[in-house]
Design brief:
With 89 residues, the protein is mainly α. The chain is built from four helices and no strands.
Length: 89
């Protein structure tokens, strides 16, 4: 697992401990909010959890998303977030 993917996964579990406790598989393909494709794992974050995730990741990676070319509306999966954070460094 890449460093960024590991950090993103741990941040999600920190925000939603139920995902870690239930042993939900958090993969690169896991949808953050909902999945348009049937069968894709869905984490079901709500808007407040998404804001918390952004704040945690900004602190962890030492970046301000507003100062990057990252568009939050383009982040649909855990992999999207990990790739965006890796590219922001």
């Amino acid at each position: 697992m890449s460093e960024a993917l590991n950090v993103v996964t741990q941040a999600i579990i920190g925000i939603r401990p139920d995902l870690g406790e239930s042993r939900v598989a958090i993969t690169r393909d896991s949808a953050l909010f909902y999945a348009a494709d049937p069968g894709r794992p869905v984490l079901g974050l709500d808007s407040m959890e998404a804001l918390e995730l952004i704040a945690v990741l900004e602190k962890e990676f030492g970046v301000e998303l507003a100062d990057t070319s990252i568009r939050i509306s383009d982040l649909h999966t855990v992999g999207d977030v990990a790739d965006a954070m890796s590219g922001a460094l």
